[in-house]
């Protein structure tokens, strides 16, 4: 019995030691960012988003987004990380965060005269899940490994920053070429929030 306990303890100690190099390499562990969300035209829309990066045991950087928004119409709304940290006007946030090399960043918008025909949607790095709003309150929690807060090609805290855009309609994840139609990525822009590094 005594021997068993010693073996177990040694096993735990060994496992702890084995974890140390992985932890030491995870310098981005716990990196955070925040966004204050405001309506594009409707002052009654407001919210916050918190982002936290962690490194998985395999060394994959994952960012968890927690978003709360009030004042949007009930139902589902597309949420994307757009490629520029600018919200005035909301169009200044430009297309969907996507360092490439394959995609265009701008999917069809409801106001386009000519379809943008971006067949990379919904596989832009900044394409997230819809937020669902009930009785004027929306909450979304989503973890993605398509973006990072720490420096690198996928970083959303790059030179020109990034912003959340919440759209009027849901994203239908129109991923077939035959599916591409105006506004399948959510249509017009209801709210925007510039993503800023935080402690
Ligand atoms: Cu969008």
Structure commentary:
The chain is mostly beta strands and 199 residues long. The protein has one domain (28-198): Sandwich (Immunoglobulin-like), CATH 2.60.40. It has one helix and nine strands. The chain has one helix spanning 2-25; strands spanning 32-39, 46-55, 61-70, 75-77, 79-82, 131-134, 137-144, 163-167, 189-198. A nine-stranded antiparallel beta sheet has the order 4-6-7-3-2-1-9-8-5, with no helix packed on it. The N and C termini lie far apart (48 Å). Mean pLDDT is 84; it is low at 1-26. The chain binds copper (II) ion (CU). The site of copper (II) ion (CU) has 8 residues, from strand 5 and strand 8.
CATH superfamily: Superoxide dismutase, copper/zinc binding domain
Q: Structural class, from helix and strand content? A: mainly beta
Mean pLDDT: 84
Q: List each distinct ligand once.
A: copper (II) ion
What topology does this entry show?
Layout: H1 2-25, E1 32-39, E2 46-55, E3 61-70, E4 75-77, E5 79-82, E6 131-134, E7 137-144, E8 163-167, E9 189-198
Antiparallel strand pairs: 1-2, 1-9, 2-3, 3-7, 4-6, 5-8, 6-7, 8-9
The protein binds copper (II) ion (CU).
């Amino acid at each position: 019995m005594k021997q068993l306990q010693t073996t177990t303890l040694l096993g735990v100690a060994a496992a702890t030691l084995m974890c140390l190099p992985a932890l030491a390499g995870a310098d981005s562990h716990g990196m955070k960012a925040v966004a204050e969300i405001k309506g594009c035209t409707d002052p009654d829309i407001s919210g916050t988003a918190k982002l936290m990066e962690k490194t998985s045991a395999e060394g994959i950087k994952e960012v968890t987004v927690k978003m709360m928004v009030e004042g949007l119409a009930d139902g589902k709304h597309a949420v994307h990380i757009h490629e520029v940290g600018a919200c005035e006007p909301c169009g200044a946030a430009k297309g969907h965060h996507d360092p490439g090399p394959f995609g265009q960043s701008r999917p069809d918008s409801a106001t386009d005269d000519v379809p943008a025909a971006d067949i990379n949607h919904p596989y832009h790095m900044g394409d997230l899940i819809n937020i669902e709003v009930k009785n004027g309150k929306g909450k979304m929690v989503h973890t993605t490994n398509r973006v990072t807060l720490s420096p690198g090609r996928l970083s959303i805290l790059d030179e020109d920053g990034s912003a959340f855009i919440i759209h009027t309609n849901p994203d239908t994840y129109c991923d077939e070429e035959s599916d591409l139609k105006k506004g399948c990525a959510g249509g017009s822009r209801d709210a925007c929030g510039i993503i800023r590094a935080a402690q």
